[in-house]
Structures are given as C-alpha cells and as structure tokens.
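To whoever is on call:

I kicked off a structure prediction for a single chain this morning and the downstream step that reads the tokens threw a length-mismatch warning. I double-checked the sequence; it's 125 residues and nothing unusual in it as far as I can see. Pasting both halves so you can look.
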Amino acid sequence: MKNTKGAIESEISKAITQWEKDYLGRGSVSVKSDILRNMIIVSLNGVLTPAEYIVCETREGMLTIKQNRSELVESGVEGLKEIILNLTGEEVKSFYTDISSRTGERIMVFKLVNDLEKKINKGDL
C-alpha cells in the first residue's frame, strides 16, 4: 500500500501532538501538517495556557513567554527531527518555529534535505 500525502501529513500531526504531551506535558488543541516541496509546515493551535495569555498582555510578558516556549521546543528538537525521519525517511536539514502570543498558534517548519513532495508523487514512499 502506498502512503498518500494526506496520510503522511496526518501521521506527522498525530506524532507531534504525542510529542507535545510526552515532552511538554500538554498538547495543542489542534494540529495541521502540510508537505510542500522540501518542507513540512506544522500549524498548532491552542498551545498557550489561560495564564500565559494573561502574561502576554504586556510586552515584557509576551517576550518572556515566547522565549520560554521557544527554548522548551528547541530543547526537544532532536526528538522532533527523529519523528520526521521515522515517518518520512527524510533527514531534517533545519528547523524553524515561532509562536503568536495573540492567537496562541505555533508554526513549525522542518526544512528537509530532499523534496519529500516529489518523492510522494512518484510513489517512492
């Protein structure tokens, strides 16, 4: 059975949600993953706690929350890269992430060594 792009994207979303629960202690409300050429773009909604939203009302608080959350995710980046490698067979070349203190949304971008979308379209996965 060939893996479809949608099935792989769904598996990535499930695995990242589980990673959040195991590593960060809680998962986001919803996760959507998209494979685009040599990138996997993951959008996570509802990552901030109610208390963090209140702290984010000041500029200083917002910067603190963004920095703390980034450090938490960056400290577990090897586990995230391993998830991507296990699910796609592709090595992660670089990883980027940011969080919106207004919407509580986090974006993760995994830049891969090879074009995963092309590999899927050719049926090589």
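Update from on-call: the warning came from a stale cache, not from the record. Cleared it. Sanity check on the structure: The longest helix spans residues 5-24.
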